[in-house]
């Protein structure tokens, strides 16, 4: 039946457990999980937002952000309401937090069949479909439905995710994704648990598993003043990513006051630039500055000769200087997908 989850265990006549994310919510009849999108209804786990998209747009793929996946192409972007984390600095809280905070009725949003998404993506000249804006893990069942249709149409699937997913659904995710950007929000387990409502180890495992499965992975850290902006923390994050693979791009993004953190000022540009240096010192080949348009940190540089191989301003690609996936100047291979 449409909208029921298979990531569930029946515990008793009146109790079931959602197995999608580390919360593993135990729900009685009528209960809704912490994410606000999954409900126990007659011994089934209903996905209330299944195929009901609160945001649909065509974006440059660089906006996800993905700097090493088919640069300069368009991606068909979908977002359902809801999230399984509670980040107080969320830059998109009006979408991610509305189911859990009440006053949201998913049935008011029309259902969109997967074939309609694929058709519209093709008509709008996109090369991929991105599940983004809120937490796409909560739309995994729909992504699994759309995957064979997208593959037949030569459309890749992309997730922009917090990585909070358990092993069995992660295995399914690895089968269908071509690329992912994973938010690594901190390197402190206590911050993840108490402030963000998640598990650090789960996100670290997701990054490792996606990379090992051959999914193209990029990582984003939103640098929030007073939370994760110390040199020690940024070094720990950079060294972890480099330990998985030095070729994984790291996006260090500037925080702007939002949601419950409106009294926190924006991240100083100097902190972002320092993070770029920390990433390079940790051995990362590609480090980018986010939310600082027109400044250094947007271009892709060849790790060997340091020439600019992708010239960008904001989300606009002005030039790609590669040949057969390598730097046009020195021939060094540029990691990623879709470099000409």
Task: Summarize the structure in words.
The protein has 340 residues and is of the alpha/beta class. The chain has three domains: 8-47, no CATH class; 55-298, Aldolase class I (TIM Barrel, Alpha-Beta Barrel); 309-340, no CATH class. Helix content is 26%, strand content 23%. The protein has nine helices and 18 strands. The chain has helices spanning 93-96, 98-101, 114-123, 140-152, 167-176, 189-196, 200-212, 231-244, 269-281; strands at residues 8-10, 15-18, 26-28, 38-41, 44-47, 55-60, 74-79, 128-131, 156-161, 179-183, 216-223, 250-254, 287-290, 300-301, 308-313, 316-320, 322-323, 326-327. The strands form five sheets. An eight-stranded mixed sheet has the order 6-7-8-9-10-11-12-13. Strands 1-2-3 form a three-stranded antiparallel sheet, with no helix packed on it. A three-stranded antiparallel sheet has the order 14-15-16, with no helix packed on it. Strand 11, helix 8 and strand 12 form a beta-alpha-beta unit. Helix 3 packs across helix 4. It is globular, with a radius of gyration of 20 Å. The termini are far apart. 44% of the residues are buried.
Strands of the largest sheet, in order across it?
6-7-8-9-10-11-12-13
- Supply the CATH class of the largest domain: Alpha Beta
- Structural class call reads alpha/beta
* Spans of at least 5 consecutive residues with low confidence: none
pLDDT averaged residue by residue: 96
């Amino acid at each position: 039946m449409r909208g029921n989850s298979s990531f569930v265990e029946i515990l008793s006549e009146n109790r079931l457990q959602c197995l999608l994310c580390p919360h593993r919510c135990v729900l009685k009849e009528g209960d809704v999980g912490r994410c606000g999108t999954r409900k126990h209804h007659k011994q089934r786990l209903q996905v209330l937002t299944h195929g009901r998209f609160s945001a649909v747009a065509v974006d440059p793929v660089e906006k996800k952000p993905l700097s090493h996946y088919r640069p300069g192409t368009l991606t068909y972007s979908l977002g359902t309401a809801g999230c399984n984390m509670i980040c107080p600095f969320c830059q998109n809280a009006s979408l991610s937090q509305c189911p859990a905070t009440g006053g949201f009725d998913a049935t008011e949003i029309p259902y969109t069949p997967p074939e309609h998404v694929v058709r519209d993506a093709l008509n709008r000249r996109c090369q991929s479909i991105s599940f983004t804006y809120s937490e796409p893990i909560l739309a995994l069942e729909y992504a699994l439905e759309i995957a064979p249709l997208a593959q037949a149409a030569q459309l890749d699937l992309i997730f922009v995710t917090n990585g909070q997913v358990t092993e069995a659904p992660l295995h399914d995710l690895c089968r269908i994704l071509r690329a992912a950007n994973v938010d690594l929000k901190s390197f402190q387990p206590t911050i993840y648990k108490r402030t963000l409502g998640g598990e650090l180890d789960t996100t670290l495992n997701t990054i490792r598993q996606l990379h090992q499965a051959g999914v193209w992975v990029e990582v984003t850290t939103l640098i929030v003043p007073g939370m994760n902006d110390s040199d020690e923390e940024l070094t720990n994050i950079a060294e972890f990513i480099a330990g998985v693979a030095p070729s994984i791009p790291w996006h260090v993004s500037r925080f702007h006051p939002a949601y419950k953190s409106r009294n926190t000022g924006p991240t100083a540009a100097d902190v972002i630039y320092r993070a770029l240096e920390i990433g390079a010192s940790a051995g990362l080949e590609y480090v980018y500055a986010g939310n600082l348009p027109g400044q250094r940190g947007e271009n892709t540089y060849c790790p060997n000769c340091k020439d600019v191989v992708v010239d960008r301003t904001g989300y606009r690609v002005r030039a790609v200087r590669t040949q057969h996936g390598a730097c046009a100047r020195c021939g060094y291979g540029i990691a990623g997908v879709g470099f000409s």
